[in-house]
Specification:
single chain, 345 residues, Rossmann fold, Dihydrodipicolinate Reductase, domain 2, eight-stranded mixed beta sheet, six-stranded parallel beta sheet, 14 strands, 23% strand, globular
Length: 345
């Protein structure tokens, strides 16, 4: 008999709809409860997803007392994650925790330890590596067709923070006041995806900057990853118009806002921002690599399926709490290194 898993979702903000839809894509998962400190938000989501009043809680403490709850899905702000994870773990519930993991490395490590101490599984809801274009790049790399990889670059650019002048128009207005922004909020996506493709770097070099006058944190970051046999680079901006012109628009109006190039001894793999993926060989031939045209939601459907598969099989999560500490350690190092600029001349 197939087991049904009962989920309590906590945090009914901007990103909760993605999780509602992902859980809804799994036949053996039921949303048994939702929690949020804001009753109007609870009522709105209950109406949208056909939940009854007895499934609504303003306190996670109260919700996890329900014996049927197996899993807590934490979708609250990062500065609440430690509290939410601790409540869930001490109640014996497995935890899926939204990224960013937590504001400090101490909190990140504490969440991992709490779940280990209470014998529950912990996975970070990191969906970027589950997107179709990253899965396709991984397949090409694993095939060996590129030969020995010497260089890779992920360029990710949006025109975002210059439009933060009006908080009323923002989905996440608290971004304006965050001391750490782009590398903390989006960096985990790109760095986790980079690690999934190329493994662990031996060290990094980094620069972080603020461009928009409407924020306190960084909206430009460059991180160089040092490996024995290759060098990698992340170039990220929330204040760039580079990928805004019509030539980068995918069918249906989508835009990946990413450009990736991977240089190997036998061939180069290139992902254009319009989603086209090309293999360029030494002899001058160019091969188009098939990539599924799919909605972003599919990546989270895969992520949530991986979480359930891991709980049922006991196999490791690719973004377990322990694994994700490595991503957060790179981000912490990048912020520390980014403060130190050696002057010449």
């Amino acid at each position: 008999m197939v087991r049904q898993w009962n989920v309590c979702m906590v945090g009914m903000g901007y990103w909760s709809d993605v999780h509602f839809q992902a859980w809804g894509s799994l036949s053996n998962v039921r949303i048994a409860a939702i929690a949020d400190r804001n009753p109007p938000k609870l009522a709105k989501k209950a109406q949208m997803y056909r939940l009854t009043d007895d499934q609504l809680y303003t306190s996670l403490h109260e919700a996890v007392q329900h014996p049927d709850i197996d899993i807590v899905d934490v979708i609250t702000r990062p500065d609440t994650h430690l509290e939410m994870v601790e409540i869930a773990a001490r109640a014996g519930k497995h935890v899926l925790c939204q990224k960013p993991f937590a504001p400090t490395m101490e909190e990140c490590r504490r969440m991992v330890a709490i779940c280990q101490e209470n014998g529950v599984r912990l996975m970070v809801a990191e969906g970027w590596r589950w997107q179709g274009h990253y899965l396709a790049m991984k397949r090409v790399l694993d095939s060996g067709v590129l030969g020995e990889v010497s260089y890779a670059k992920i360029s990710a650019k949006w025109f975002f923070t210059p439009r933060f002048d009006d908080p009323a128009k923002m989905t996440q207005p608290y971004f304006r006041d965050m001391e750490r922004l782009l590398l903390y909020e989006m960096g985990p996506h790109y760095i986790d995806s980079y690690r999934s493709l190329f493994g662990e770097p031996d060290g990094i070099t980094a620069v972080t900057k603020r461009v928009s006058p409407h924020i306190k944190g960084d909206d430009l970051a460059i991180v160089i990853f040092h490996h024995t046999a290759m060098t990698g680079m992340l170039e990220a901006s929330w204040a760039s118009r580079e990928f805004r012109d019509g030539s980068y628009t995918l069918p249906g109006g989508e835009n990946l806002m990413e450009y990736v190039v991977i240089e190997g001894s036998e061939a180069t793999l290139r992902l254009n921002a319009d989603g086209e993926m090309l293999l360029l060989r030494t002899d001058g031939t160019v091969e188009q690599i098939p990539r599924p045209q799919e909605a972003f939601q599919e990546s989270h459907n895969r992520l949530h399926q991986h979480f359930i598969d891991g709980i049922e099989s006991g196999l490791p999560f690719v973004t377990s709490g322990e694994e994700y500490l490595k991503t957060m350690e790179i981000i912490e190092a990048a912020y520390q290194v980014g403060k130190k600029v050696e002057r010449i001349g």
